[in-house]
Structure formats: structure tokens, C-alpha cells
């Protein structure tokens, strides 16, 4: 049997060799083609026994066996590597009558070498069907290292027998004795292959009749394939596919008894419409409530039910959450996962769907939910986690808002909060900062209404405070405007670099400086560039030269 790595046949008829000689007459003779002919691949070399070297010329490479040559080369009886010419006798037809394929070379003879391991038994070797030669077994660690008609035995050698991936013709590979069997097919085994179980032959058979959910006539054999039946449903008759469990049915269908001895796949909605008739793409599932195709929940992602996981997966508890996990097929799983025989699902070999070490129960005890992407306990992941407001998913907070967003542009009024530049949506809110409130205070993303009689002002919480007192710069910005700061010594607001001796609500200069006229207007005068003496946010520029001192100025930051 030919393997997937079989090299393409090399046809080298005598007439072609002659033509090549004529083309190369001005450059070299045919006798010299082994060392002078230009080439890019081995087949460019016209003389058997030469291969294409690294310099792009045909060269002679000595060998004692095919293993001494390249992967698409073989060893000639004369002991030199050459391009492989054939993999079967048919490839040698262009060489003339009586030529057969032996050791991947077309030779005159009546046999192409060994055809089975039994012919090599006396030597303890195995038959390489491609070369027709008996070879010493090289050992194996997996079925994929053996030819398609063999499997890797416990001895570490390739042995004749079927493999895990099954047999041709719908037969089932019995892994206990490595033989193909077809007298015991089941609806589930065949459904996994997209076929029906033919009880007469005991083999899986293709479906060539009407599709599932198509209308049909009771008592006929017009549906799908063997074992598929026409059943009455909702005042009409539809085609159902034979099943053993709901896992054998397409997305949106469940396995239900339709006779005393047979079960069929019935739409969950009990009506054949929408995606129950048209079907869905491989990355979608049929929503039984809307009869529309929804995006299938990805493997390892959190889920609510098995329908959203698709036919080949199920929603099951794993790593602290209900997740979609692929189902094992004949006890096997895709690379990177291993079958949990307890629940029949493929679990990641790493032991986790994500690198996050937290589990849902850790957050639940705190009255929060797990955000695996951020690997943190948050207030919410979806709006349903919030008792009031909506969930700003990017930061996991419940906030008062009007709808989801990914940018301010998506909010008809207000601003977007909580998207953080990711695909996880934020929430349209009234404000994110005081500047969004036109002089009012932004409190919990809502502009606080505050009207205070002079000399009282509003603090950051929208409360009236007396005497212009403050506890933070934010309170001053809210009551006075951008750039105002809070003087911790007097608890009053001021603009760095200015002072007003006639307004007791504005923070006074820090002693020993006093408010006076300078080159830049009223500012705190009498500071020292070394000792300071200015309020926070101010810098002393005193040069010790009368008329040139600027005093305490603001905005330089040094």
C-alpha cells in the first residue's frame, strides 16, 4: 500500500535522454552529464546514478543502501544515489516492456520484490512495500509512523492491522484485535461519520435520500439512509435521522422515540423552520427558540447549555465553570487534550483552559464573579450580574448607564466608560469626570446637582461646604474651575501663582511670603529660592535683585 510520502514517478525515456544530449552538445557530452549538467532537482540529471548537488550540478554520491541517500532518492546496484523512478510497476511503462519497479528503480525482470512481511520472516525483517525490499524494522512510537495498513504495536514495531482512525467502507476498527468489523454498527457510531447504520449489512452507509426535516410520506423509505424514518410531527410528516442519543443529532435537534423500537432526531422547537431546515455553518449552532443560527461557543469557553457548544462538544463543569469541551471519539481526542473517560470529554493536557490560577468559587465567596481574561474577581461580567445599572465589562463594574458601547462615538449622549480599548463593551454614562458636568460634580458617573449660597461651595460629592474650605484639589476644580488647587494649610482654594488679599475665601500666601504686586501681577512675594515659602504647585523665582523678583509663580513644576 502506498504511503502519503510516496515520491512522484520519474519518467526518463531513452528519447528524452537523447534530446537532452543534443541540447547540451555545445556545453558537454552525455558522458560528462554526471558532473557538468546544470540542475535544480535530482530529476534534472539525465544519467542514472547522479543527483543534483548543492552547487546546482549533477554529482555522484556513493551509497550502500537507500538510507545513505536523500528522501526522494534510492541507491543503484552500482552503489550510487539516484532520483527515485517508481513506486509501482505501472510507473515503469515508459521504460519498455518487461520493466518492473524494484527498490524504486525501473528494472528488467518479472518481480517487483517482496509484497508482505511473511516473505521477509526468515531474516527477521519487514517488507517495505514502496521499495519492494526487506528492511530491518526501525521501530515506532505512534500509528502515524506506520503505513496505513499497519499500527504501532506494544513491541515498538509496525504490525499489520487497522488503526484508531477506523476502516474503509464504514467498517469499525476493533482496537482489541486490530481487525475491521462491520456486523455490529450502531446509530451513534454511524452518526459520528455523518452516515446511517444499515442493519442488514451491519455497516455504516451514506445518506442519499431527503434531508432531515424535509416533508415526506409515511411508510416510505425516502428519508436519508438505512434506519432513517418519516415521522408525523405537528400535523405534517418530516424526515428524521436514526439516533441513539441526542449527541447523534444535528444542532437544535434531540433524540426522541418515534416508534416502539426506533428513535429519531426531532427539532427542539417541534417545528421545521429556519435553521432546522437550512442548517448552519460549522462555526454556528441552531437556536431552538429562534430557529436562527447563532455563533457556536468556543472550546473551553464558559457556557450555559450544550446546545451552544455544537454537536461535537458538550457543556460540562471544568476548572470552576461550565465550559464547552469536545467529546471523545472512540476514546481519542485532538492533539493537546486527553479523553476523560468518566464524562467522555477532551480535557486540556495542561489541566486548565486558561493560565488564570483563580477559580469561580474563589470569587463567589466574595459575592463577585471571575473574569478569566483579567484573572481577577469583579463585580460583573454581564448585565445580569448587576442589581442596578449595567455592566461595564472592560472593568467589571456596575454603573448607571443607557447602553453598551466601545467608544464615545457610540453614545448619543454622555460618554463611554469601561471599554479600555478592548472588544469587551463599556457603558454609556452621563460623565466620567467633573469636566463633563459644566461646573457640577461627577459622582458615580452622574452629574451631581448642587447649588450653594455664597460663601459656601460644592465639594466632590455634591455637598455644600462652608467658608470655601476644601479637602482636595478636585473640590476646588469643581467649585472654581480647572487649575484651582486646595491649600492644605488653610483648607482654601487658590490658583497657583496668584493671590487676592481682598478675598478671604482664597488661600492666603504661606508665611513669611505676603500677597503683593510683582512683575506678573499679584503673587506671593518674599520667597527664597532655597528655603521656598510658596504654596503647593508654585515655584519661587527670587533673584535677590530689587525689581526683578517674580515671587511665587505657578505652572513650572520645579
Summarize this structure as a short list of keywords or feature phrases.
mainly beta; single chain; elongated; 41 strands; 6 helices; 6% helix; 558 residues; two-stranded antiparallel ribbon; three-stranded antiparallel sheet
Number of helices: 6
Into which percentage range does the β-strand content fall? 25-35%
Largest sheet: 3 strands, antiparallel
* Helical residue percent band: under 10%
Radius of gyration (CA) equals: 41 Å
Side-by-side strand order of the widest sheet: 29-31-30
When the domains are counted, the total is 6
Straight-line N-to-C gap:
83 Å
Number of E-type strands: 41
Descriptive notes:
By secondary structure, the chain is mainly β. It folds into six domains: 95 residues, no CATH class; 80 residues, no CATH class; 53 residues, no CATH class; 59 residues, no CATH class; 47 residues, no CATH class; 64 residues, no CATH class. Helices cover 6% and strands 26% of the residues. The chain contains six helices and 41 strands. The strands form 20 sheets. Strands 29-31-30 form a three-stranded antiparallel beta sheet, with no helix packed on it. It has a two-stranded antiparallel ribbon with strand order 1-2. The chain has a two-stranded antiparallel sheet with strand order 3-4. Strand 21 and strand 22 form a beta hairpin. The longest helix is centred in the first third of the chain and has 10 residues. It starts with 13 loop residues before the first helix and ends with a strand. The N terminus is likely disordered.
